[in-house]
Amino acid sequence: MRIIVTGGNGYVGREVTRRLMREHTVRVVDSLRYGTIRFRPDEMSAFQFRQADINDAGAMRSAIGDFEPDAVIHLAAIHYIPECEQDPALSVRTNVSGTQNLLAACPPGCRFVFASSGAVYKPDESPHREDTALIEPSDIYGYSKLHGEHYVRYAAAAHGLSAVVVRLFNVIGPGETNPHLLPEIVAQLKSGRTTIRLGNLWPRRDYIHVQDAAAGFVATTLSRAVGTGETVTVNLGTSRSYSVADILGKLKAITGSDFELIQDETRVRAVDRPFLAADNSRIRDLFGWNQAHSIDEALAHLWREPELSIQLTEKYA
CA of 272: how far to CAs of 96, 184, 268, in Å? Predict the structure, then answer.
């Protein structure tokens, strides 16, 4: 297959590209907004790379038009919630209008796999199902992803695409490009700190290993036919949630360190949700995806090979 991966130099995108590039013709489209090329030199020969911004409609027409993809996996987005809250106009333009630019450029019959988020759901106390009526985001990021879903469904029906909306939950493991909770903790521990400063301590999240997340996007691209004009929506998570206290307990066991936790009011998010977890039965039933890594394996992998972002390595140098 001929497959475009937008955001293919990013966190999940890099692992998706690595899984596809040996058996398929892959073009990565990435603006390099978060840094330089993150692939090894030997990997670069296995796929095509196009530096382009999804906000540039002409660049997207060119990147898609001269490649003629069978599928587009759309991962490019602004997804760090504090950044979305600080610059909502850029976040909406990128996550919604950027998505529309891609949809408008896709040829009829193309499989379009859209990375949405569990952030579209209203907080609840049980794993979220795709058919729930509890669709009520609590932040700019969640709203931008929900609006992106609307345009995906419209474009699939109007322009003859076959679409899959993948509501991704919290990803962990090596190579994170943003200072989310777990990379933040690891960065502080790796710098030798024995007092860890964090924001909100009570939210429970569904954490999925980056490799399992990448496998989910590959499965929804390659497995099972999706009808022309049809949109299928699936959750991509583990169906289990963990609090910050749970995670810290596991990290203490993995690292062998005994650190003190302090809630830092300057890091507390005004917008947060108490509980997120995915009911993942639909992606397993429809696309044959299965979780391969436990939370403990994901945390151990993150600790061994963190590949922390420059934001964090410089912050705690």
Answer: 22, 17, 9
Cα–Cα distance measured from residue 202 to residue 243, given in angstroms and rounded to the nearest whole number: 6
Rounded to an integer, what distance in angstroms lies between the CA atom of residue 182 and that of residue 80? Answer: 13
pLDDT (tens digit, 9 = 90+) per residue, 74-110? 999 999 988 999 999 999 999 999 999 999 999 999 9
In a domain, 191, yes or no: yes
Q: Could you tell me if residue 138 is inside a domain?
A: yes
- Regarding pTM above 0.85, the answer is yes
Angle at CA of residue 291, ends 290 and 292, nearest 5°: 110
286 belongs to a structural domain: no
Query: Quick one: which H or E segment has residue 198?
Result: strand 195-198
List helix spans (H) across the chain. 11-20, 41-44, 57-65, 81-86, 88-92, 98-105, 140-159, 181-190, 210-222, 244-255, 281-287, 295-304, 310-315
Residue 265: per-residue pLDDT: 65
With respect to residue 285, please indicate whether it lies within any of the assigned structural domains: no
> CB neighbours of 170 closer than 8 A, spacing ≥ 6?
118, 180, 205, 206, 207, 208, 237, 276
- Bridge pairing between strands 260-263 and 242-243: unpaired
Pair (117, 134) in one structural domain: yes
**Residues of the chain falling short of pLDDT 70:** 133-134, 199-202, 264-274, 317
- Pair (178, 161) in one structural domain: no
Residue 195 domain boundaries:
172-206+240-276+293-315
* Rounded to 5°, angle at Cα 254 from 248 and 255: 85
Beta pairing partners, 233: 165
Asked if 136 and 123 touch (Cβ cutoff 8 Å), the reply is no
